[in-house]
Amino acid sequence: MDLNDLTPAELRVWEAFPTGAAVDFQGSAERTVRAVVLRALMLNGPRQDGEVPVLRVAGAHITGVLDVRYGAVETYVRLSRCRFDEAPLLYGCEFRQLNLSGSELPGLAAATLRVDGVLRLTDCRFTGPVALGGSQISGALFMDRAEFHTPDDSDEPALRLNHASIGEDLVAPGIRVHGRMVCNDASVDASVNLMDAMLENPDGTALDAQTLSVASDVHARRLTAVGRLDLRGARVTGRLDLAHSRLSNPGHTVLQASSSVIGELWLNEAEPLDGSVNFRQTQTDLLRVAPETLAGEVRLNGLSYTMLSPHVPAERWLPVLRRDVDGYVPHAYEQLTALYQRIGDDHAARLVQLAKQRRLRTTRAWYGRLWGYLQDVTVGYGFRPLRALAWLLSLLAVGTIAYGLHEPPALKASEHPDFSPVFFTLDLLLPVISFGQEGAFAPKGGYQALSYALVITGWLLATTVITGITRAVSRQ
Question: Hey, which residues does 241 pair with through a beta bridge?
Fold first, then answer.
């Protein structure tokens, strides 16, 4: 490049490059630098023996398109607090390190970008799409407090990180994304920091992170999201921390985490989710969420967890299970039962199993529902065995009083044992055991009808007791 063609501002940058000196245009009247000058420095800038060339420019107004597609930039590049008229084209480019901190850009086309060190977009403001799909960053990616926007009439994601590979952390606390953030099939070899972030894409997907792979934790405390968080098939080895978050997608799915494997899933102290939740076939060691947080419809079929925190009575979880859009989901009840059994809360486990049978009853034909009501009223499906004793004592009392006041006549006046209203009633109630009373006396009229009722009730009671005991034994 002919130095005579350079403006005074560009000449300052050119002369500072060989020694790595910084050029700060803050407060300067002349701060315009053409993108072609920066490109020339990046790809074939002057060298000075014994010095390390570095492009350090701050506060510049960069005109034209910075087109370094497929180029290999061997120097460190820092263009901080700069204002770009056009979106840089860095497709397929290779950098040692790239720092655009604090700059304003109308977009960034950097798909399949390769950075051997760190990529910094801290405090950047993008008014157009940022494409980093397929990029490979050996170090960390810093996007803290960066803002990403797309025009209202554009379907393009505001930020693309799909298929990206990040060798260290993805650091983006306080990030603001107005539009879709796409990082499906991306991999992060350390942690992701989205604390205090805001993702907005009303009635759409705010975060598309399908099959995202994170080797450590995802820190997303106090995350505010308007739109769907899609984490289908994600793999998070450590903790997915959404504590104190505010997630909203009214009338639609707000959190989609089906078929995911997550070490720990935290939603503690989060505001009630405004939208439905999908945890189908999800696996986690610890699910930390209050039942009231899952305020909308849920999909829990196949959800597997080892621990559930905080420990609350089963009565608070049962309404959540009843809101499953798949209807009766046995697996959800069995998972909750197993949890209470592991921590030794047998009472809560029985309540969950009783609720399971009552929910199953609603799926039966009328005769199945009738039989279910009978089992429920008599012995609580075997989970409340003392009810059978209460029914037995009540019927025994009725029969004893009735036949004690009106002794039935003997079938054979000369051959009969002494009448006992207690044991006569027991003979009627107990289908197998005989005390010799039932066959010796024959009540008449209404007392005969009472005897029939006691026999039928005894058989029904015995059948339901046996059914309940069988269920309890098979469960053990």
Answer: 219, 266
Pairing of strands 119-120, 147-149: unpaired
What per-residue confidence (pLDDT) applies to 340?
92
Evaluate if pTM is beyond 0.90.
no
Provide the token pair at 2: 């002919």
Residues ≥6 apart with Cβ < 8 Å to 348: 313, 314, 340
pLDDT score of 361 more than 90:
no
Write the DSSP assignment of 241-275 as a string of letters.
E-TT-EEEEEEEEEEE-TT-EEEEEE-TTPPPPEE
Per the model's pLDDT, the better-predicted residue between 449 and 153 turns out to be 449
Q: What is the pLDDT of residues 380-428, one digit of tens each?
A: 666 666 666 777 788 888 888 888 888 888 887 777 778 888 888 888 8
Q: Which two tokens stand for residue 30?
A: 């002349």
Contact 197, 224 (CB under 8 A): yes
Distance CA 382, CA 473 (A): 10
Which residues of 92-133 form beta strands (DSSP E)? 94-95, 98-99, 104-105, 108-109, 114-115, 119-120, 125-126, 130-131
